[in-house]
Structure formats: structure tokens, C-alpha cells
Automatic annotation (TrEMBL):
InterPro entries, per the entry: RuBisCO, RuBisCO_lsu_C, RuBisCO_lsu_C_sf, RuBisCO_lsu_fd_N, RuBisCO_lsu_N_sf
Protein family (similarity comment): Belongs to the RuBisCO large chain family.
Domain (Ribulose bisphosphate carboxylase large subunit C-terminal) ranges: 151-431
Residues of the Ribulose bisphosphate carboxylase large subunit ferrodoxin-like N-terminal domain: 22-141
One BP term from GO: carbon fixation
Record protein name field: 2,3-diketo-5-methylthiopentyl-1-phosphate enolase
Coiled coil, from the record: none
The organism of origin for this protein: Propionispira arboris
GO terms of molecular function: magnesium ion binding; ribulose-bisphosphate carboxylase activity
Pfam families per record: RuBisCO_large, RuBisCO_large_N
Length: 445
């Protein structure tokens, strides 16, 4: 009798199922040299849906047909078809790696985000050498998510900026300052030309030294003062991150105090909490999702969850702005992953609005031409220390960044533009230009 884990019931062709009824997960899975990958894949699917490590009485074929996961493909890397090639290649290796696609019935999950994680990652992430590469979502699954309220177009409309990269500043120091000190730093960045100013991820809600409503009122007053002078609108994403039961109250207090945007540490509060805020009609301002802690989920090449999945989920759960670490600055991210993350934010995703990619992690004027070549102009450039650590002060730091943006939009090199703009000249002389110097030497981490 056929091994049930080999049966077409658990191993159909992709063309043999209705993909509208499945969330299809793609995994990288390592196995012992002599391990059967078909049995391994089917066992994972059973473990995460209807069964366990041995048959149970109520897990009938009827139950499996409707509720069990289905193995849709198993490809070895490289994709051996001939035993002679395989034997030669594997002579000195103990492990083999496979890319495996498993379809999980949507009926098991519906639009329950915690249950999505329990199903598609769940217990199996305790296995060594198992990494979730992607999830392909059917349209009717995504239709239950409202996604971003504003997206790129909505944020541009608020700011009145149509056709250039937006500029963000993170207030520095990250924490430990009073609202009065923060408002001065805010004003200097805003008057220099920053479009969006955010709290750091390390200060949020009410701190003993910096209360939420005090921070909002003083910063929004600074924004109003700067806006009158520069003739532009400044958005403030106040960090409301807190225990989940305090989030909505924090959001509403911030909005009542005048905040025109909010921010959360998205993986700290959880995706369901982000979604709850984004889908709440009372939270009527854009939401910036900071992705701190995300590195713990995505960095290992053999474990965890790919950034592809994380950014899809952030967009589905309503993030208007999503932080993506720049590979040319402080962090050593792979460029192709960074580019794909931007595409996930900007590209068509059924009927969801776009999310604004927020590029951070050591952004200086000398990086802007390279970033724009990667991203186009539908992006938010996040500069912290290059504003507040600028040699002649944060006003000039912000001006240097805007001058770099304008030069790129006009097709002028930074070296050429620096001849007519003293702030950009200072920045280029101090920190250099990507491609001319090794900018990694600027950063201590």
C-alpha cells in the first residue's frame, strides 16, 4: 500500500487545487543527506494543520482533503535529476537543501493574524534549518485587510509634495531629553527643510522625563512656527508604542493634542495591534511602522522569516510608512533584499494602498544619489545624526540633505552642486560620497 505521505491527496499538483483557497508558503529546508524530502515536507504540512507525528483516528481522508496542508513542490538546490551528479556533489556534504512550497487552507486561518503565524511558522520553527521565504496570499484573503489608510499618495497630499523624495529626521539623542529640548531640535530640523520628523524608537508613550501630550503640543507648535517660515508642511510621527491595552488611548491622546501622524514599534506591539490601530476609524492619521526587532526574525540565512514576508504583512496590517534599513550605511543588509522590500511597499498588492518606504540607518547627503537610483523618488529618506550631528548645526544639516535631493532631481552631481551650496559642501567634505570612499568607516556598529 502507498505511503500516505506520498499520496496525491497531500501532494497535489499546483494545477490540482484552487489557489484562491490557499495561502502558499515557500520554505528553505535543510535535511540530512539520506532524509526523504517528500516525507519531510508532508510531515511539516500535517504537523501545522490536521495531524501529528503519528496517525490519529479522527484525521480521516475527508478531513485531510479539506483541512490538511498540501505539498505543491519540492526542489533541491541544485535541482538534481541524475544520481551520478548528485553522488559526486554530495560526497563531502552531510546536508541537502530544498525549496518547498506548501499550501495552507485559508479556511483554517481566515484573517486571523496570530493564527497565520501559528500555522505557517508555529512549532516547525523549532527545527534547525527551516526558513520561511515567502507567502503567496490569495485575493480573497487579502481583501479582509484594509491596509494603509493614506499610503504614498495620501502622505504626499498632506505634505503638498508631488515629485521628490521626502525627507525625515529622527530626533537625536534617542531618549533622555525633555519636551522643551526636543522641541528645539524639532524646530531646527523642520526649518532646515525636513518634511517628517519622528520620535526615535527608544522613546515612546509617557516617559517620566517626557510626557506624550507635552511632547506632541510642543513639537506641533514648533512645526506650526517652522511651516509659516518655510512655506511647507511638517508631519510629526509621535511614538505611541506601549503595552497593547494602552495603544488606542495613547493614539487618541496624541491626536487630540494635535499630532498629525503616529508611530509604533510594529514588531514590539505585534502585527494584530498595528492592524487594530490602522483599521480604527478614530485613528485618522498616517502610521509609521518602525521595524526594530525585525532583524531577530530575518537575519539568519537558515532560520526565521524573510523580510519579504515581514513587509507584506506590515502593508496588509496598515502601515503607511515602513522602515527599511539601507545596505550602504550602518547595516550590512543584502542589496537585493533591500530592493525587494522597496518593491513590496511600492508595487501593486491587489487593492491595498502603497506603503511609503522609509530608508534609514546612517543616511547622509553622499548616499542620496545611490538610494534614489535604487528607489526612485517615492521614498522617505531618514536622517538622524547627519542632521543633529552636522558640524554647523541641525538647520544646516537638514539644508544639506535637501540640497542633495534637489541636485539628484536636477541630474547634477553632488560635487558640482556643492560648489554653489555651502551646507552640501560641508557634508561632502566631512562624510564623503558613496562610491568615492568606503562610507562603512563612518559607522561604529
Amino acid at each position: 500500500m502507498m505511503n500516505r505521505l506520498y499520496s496525491p491527496l497531500l501532494n497535489p499538483m499546483t494545477e490540482g487545487i484552487n489557489l484562491d483557497d490557499y495561502c502558499v508558503a515557500t520554505y528553505l529546508i535543510g535535511a540530512e543527506k539520506d532524509e526523504d524530502p517528500i516525507i519531510k515536507a508532508a510531515s511539516i504540512g500535517i504537523e501545522q494543520t490536521t495531524g501529528s507525528w503519528t496517525d490519529v483516528e479522527a484525521e480521516t481522508d475527508e478531513v485531510r482533503a479539506k483541512y490538511a496542508a498540501k505539498t505543491l513542490s519540492v526542489f533541491e538546490v541544485p535541482d538534481y535529476e541524475n544520481f551520478t551528479y548528485m553522488k559526486k556533489d554530495l560526497a563531502d556534504r552531510d546536508m541537502r537543501f530544498y525549496v518547498i512550497k506548501i499550501g495552507f487552507p485559508q479556511v483554517n486561518i481566515e484573517d486571523n493574524m496570530p493564527l497565520l503565524f501559528a500555522t505557517i511558522t508555529g512549532n516547525i520553527t523549532s527545527m534547525p534549518y527551516l526558513r520561511l521565504l515567502d507567502i503567496d496570499f490569495p485575493a480573497k484573503f487579502v481583501a479582509k485587510f484594509k491596509g494603509p489608510k493614506f499610503g504614498i499618495a495620501g502622505i504626499r497630499k498632506i505634505l503638498g509634495v508631488k515629485d521628490r523624495p521626502l525627507l525625515n529626521n529622527m530626533i537625536k539623542p534617542c531618549t533622555g531629553y525633555t519636551p522643551e529640548v526636543g522641541a528645539k531640535l524639532f524646530y531646527d530640523a523642520a526649518i532646515g527643510g525636513v518634511d517628517i520628523i519622528k520620535d526615535d524608537e527608544l522613546i515612546s508613550g509617557d516617559r517620566a522625563f517626557n510626557k506624550l501630550e507635552d511632547r506632541v503640543k510642543l513639537n506641533m507648535a514648533a512645526a506650526a512656527k517652522a511651516d509659516k517660515i518655510k512655506g511647507e508642511t511638517t508631519m510629526y510621527t509621535v511614538n505611541i508604542t506601549d503595552e497593547v491595552h494602552k495603544l488606542k488611548d495613547n493614539a487618541l491622546r496624541a491626536i487630540k493634542a494635535g499630532a498629525n501622524a503616529i508611530m509604533v514599534d510594529a514588531f514590539g506591539i505585534g502585527l494584530s495591534a498595528l492592524r487594530s490601530l490602522a483599521e480604527d476609524p478614530d485613528v485618522n492619521v498616517p502610521i509609521l511602522a518602525h521595524t526594530c526587532y525585525g532583524g531577530a526574525l530575518k537575519t539568519s540565512p537558515y532560520q526565521g522569516v524573510s523580510s519579504n514576508v515581514l513587509f507584506k504583512l506590515l502593508r496588509m496590517c496598515g502601515a503607511d510608512i515602513i522602515l527599511i534599513e539601507c545596505p550602504y550605511g550602518k547595516f550590512d543588509n543584502i542589496q537585493s533584499k533591500y530592493i525587494r522590500s522597496i518593491q513590496i511597499c511600492q508595487g501593486k498588492f491587489y487593492n491595498l494602498k502603497t506603503s511609503l518606504p522609509f530608508i534609514g540607518g546612517g543616511v547622509i547627503p553622499g548616499l542620496i544619489p545611490t538610494i534614489m537610483q535604487d528607489t526612485g523618488y517615492d521614498v522617505l529618506l531618514g536622517a538622524g545624526a547627519s542632521v543633529h550631528g552636522f558640524p554647523t548645526g541641525p538647520v544646516d544639516g537638514a539644508k544639506a540633505l535637501r540640497q542633495a535631493i534637489d541636485a539628484c532631481m536636477d541630474g547634477v552631481s553632488l560635487r558640482e552642486a556643492a560648489k554653489d551650496h555651502k551646507e552640501l559642501e560641508v557634508a561632502v567634505n566631512k562624510w564623503g560620497i558613496y562610491g568615492e570612499e568606503n562610507l562603512k568607516n563612518l559607522y561604529a556598529i
